[in-house]
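hiii so um. not sure if this is the right channel but i have a protein structure encoded as tokens and i wanna go backwards to a sequence. like what aa goes where. can anyone help
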């Protein structure tokens, strides 16, 4: 919070007695100048309707300096509400720097705020009578009372925006002690410890001091004096004010010439008279053949050249050009007219800056490469030979150090990009992508007749990039006529090797007694058999000896067309010859067939596999000399 004053000259009562009154004008004064570096004092003068003026002065330096903004609380001394003229003046070292005026009136029964900002942008602005400089330039000093914002007890934010009486409107950050861009930081874009334009504080400049060049270190200005000058008073503000050719500081700050030797010879010190080649010019012995201030005679001061310093040689004026500048046209009148950072005058007059296969630049005063021409690179990083490397080689393809070496191929970079010139034997460029080279290889493909993703081993072709239709890369199908038989297929209870591991029905529980869970044995003697064993040339069937008189012979046949199961029992044989088809049927009746007899099933259509089981014993079911036949079905 800033400092507050009470304009007692306009009041009818004391501060303690009238703070509760409603009719009030609060004058708020702020600035974007750096304090105390650029402003060290603000004076506020308030003149009431009667012409009585009240003045408040705020010293902005020292331990007791008030904080900004400043406040002046003003109340009317009678019934007259205006006008009230406010003049705010900022000064530095007793010299006025900036002034602003505003004129308004009280609003009866209300507390209003008049905000005045002393702006750096107004320092050189001269306004007409009745106007004062504000954010937008010159504006009338009269402010309508109705436009004054209500006083809420707190000032507007110290931002660099317009007089908004409360809203921070961002503008570009300036060095002024304010948060101009409304980001919560003040003067964050300025380094006050090293910036010669804002050294230690905003607007404290180390430059433009007499006879010197300034720099900033640790927030303190340091001067480098011109030749023949010195800083004898130790004040940065006065620069290097002492002329070392003057008798008051002859050769050094500590040397003052006395009456016996009243003249100053910069080379000899204090002397009684001038010796050749010098001559007396005032109180100084001057070599007019070499002194640029007295070149040829005492009044022959050499003109200050553009971008340089005057010189005198042989009593003739010349110029010593600043670094980076030169007198390339030989005309003394325009000084050192040529900056030495162009491609025509790079580091010296007439020194051209060109580089092979490149766009050259001399922005720093030295010839450099701004950009290489298309298809060329500065691969050795040397500037003198420009962009020496073409980027169309196998070692430098499109960029320095980028090889062109596609896999399994011979590459080419003739067009500036890596491509496949030819594939190595046995390799093929199938995807036409140089990044993968010749990624395709000739290989074998297998016919997949049942379209289960696994081919058989009988029909094989070799191909390169494209797999022939109906062929696959895997040739591991043990039955390429059934799409549910392949490596990894689920094993079914069907006496088949569904998963191609050479073991039919492996890993399965006992087969159930329905078409959905296949293989049931129907007979009238014993319960169905659910485990199997091998016997002779039969398929797996087990627990043969568990049945009276076993074992059995089992036959598996598949019909590919409609047909019947026909069982013939030859005379003197104990087994049957069977023809079977695939179909999921209901139970087949047990047949007792005598030797040299035949049993025929109903007409069947193609379906699942069928089994026939022949018992070589009678088991008390069939008459003596007959054979019991059990049909296993799914």
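sure thing!! here u go:
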């Amino acid at each position: 919070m800033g400092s507050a004053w009470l304009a007692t000259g306009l009041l009818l009562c004391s501060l303690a007695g009238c703070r509760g009154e409603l009719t009030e004008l609060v004058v708020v004064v702020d600035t974007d100048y750096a304090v105390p570096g650029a402003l060290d004092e603000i004076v506020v003068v308030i003149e009431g309707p009667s012409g009585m003026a009240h003045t408040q002065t705020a010293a902005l330096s020292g331990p007791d300096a008030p904080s900004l903004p400043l406040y002046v609380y003003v109340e009317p001394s009678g019934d007259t509400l205006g006008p009230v003229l406010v003049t705010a003046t900022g000064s530095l070292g007793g010299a006025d720097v900036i002034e602003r005026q505003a004129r308004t009136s009280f609003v009866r029964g209300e507390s209003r705020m008049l905000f005045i900002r002393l702006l750096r942008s107004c320092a050189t602005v001269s306004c007409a009578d009745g106007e004062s400089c504000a954010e937008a330039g010159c504006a009338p000093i009269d402010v309508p009372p109705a436009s004054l914002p209500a006083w809420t007890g707190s000032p507007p934010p110290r931002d660099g925006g317009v007089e908004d009486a409360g809203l921070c409107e961002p503008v570009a950050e300036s060095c002024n002690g304010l948060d101009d861009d409304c980001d919560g930081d003040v003067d964050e874009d300025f380094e006050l410890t090293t910036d010669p334009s804002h050294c230690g504080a905003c607007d404290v400049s180390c430059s433009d001091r007499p006879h010197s060049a300034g720099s900033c270190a640790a927030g303190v200005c340091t001067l480098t004096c011109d030749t023949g000058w010195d800083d004898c008073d130790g004040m940065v503000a006065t620069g290097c004010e002492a002329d070392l050719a003057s008798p008051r500081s002859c050769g050094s700050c500590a040397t003052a010439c006395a009456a016996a030797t009243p003249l100053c010879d910069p080379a000899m010190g204090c002397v009684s008279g001038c010796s050749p080649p010098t001559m007396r010019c005032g109180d100084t012995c001057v070599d007019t053949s070499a002194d640029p201030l007295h070149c040829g005679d005492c009044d022959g001061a050499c003109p200050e050249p553009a971008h340089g310093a005057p010189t005198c040689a042989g009593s003739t004026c010349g110029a010593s050009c600043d670094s980076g500048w030169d007198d390339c046209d030989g005309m003394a009148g325009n000084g050192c007219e040529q900056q030495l950072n162009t491609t025509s005058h790079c580091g010296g007059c007439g020194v051209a800056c060109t580089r092979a296969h490149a766009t050259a630049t001399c922005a720093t005063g030295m010839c450099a490469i701004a950009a290489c021409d298309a298809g060329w690179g500065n691969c050795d990083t040397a500037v003198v030979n420009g962009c020496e490397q073409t980027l169309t080689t196998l070692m430098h393809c499109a960029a320095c150090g980028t090889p062109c070496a596609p896999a399994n191929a011979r590459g080419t970079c003739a067009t500036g990009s890596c491509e496949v010139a030819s594939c190595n034997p046995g390799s093929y460029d199938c995807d036409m992508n140089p990044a993968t080279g010749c990624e395709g290889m000739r290989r074998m493909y297998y016919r997949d007749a049942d379209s289960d993703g696994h081919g058989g081993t009988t029909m094989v072709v070799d191909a390169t990039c494209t797999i022939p239709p109906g062929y696959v890369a895997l040739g591991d199908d043990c039955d390429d006529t059934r799409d549910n038989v392949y490596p990894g297929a689920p094993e079914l209870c069907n006496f088949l090797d569904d998963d191609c591991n050479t073991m039919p029905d492996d890993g399965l529980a006992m087969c159930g007694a329905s078409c959905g869970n296949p293989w049931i044995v129907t007979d009238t003697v014993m319960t169905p058999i659910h485990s199997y064993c091998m016997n002779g040339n039969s398929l797996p069937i087990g627990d043969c000896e568990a049945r009276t008189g076993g074992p059995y012979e089992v036959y598996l046949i598949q019909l590919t067309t409609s047909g019947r199961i026909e069982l013939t029992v030859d005379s003197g044989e104990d087994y049957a010859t069977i023809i079977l088809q695939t179909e999921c049927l209901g139970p087949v009746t047990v047949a007792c067939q005598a030797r040299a007899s035949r049993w025929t099933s109903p007409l069947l259509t193609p379906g699942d596999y069928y089994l026939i089981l022949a018992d070589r014993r009678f088991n008390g079911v069939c008459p003596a000399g007959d054979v019991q036949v059990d049909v296993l079905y799914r």
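oh and The helical segments are 15-18.
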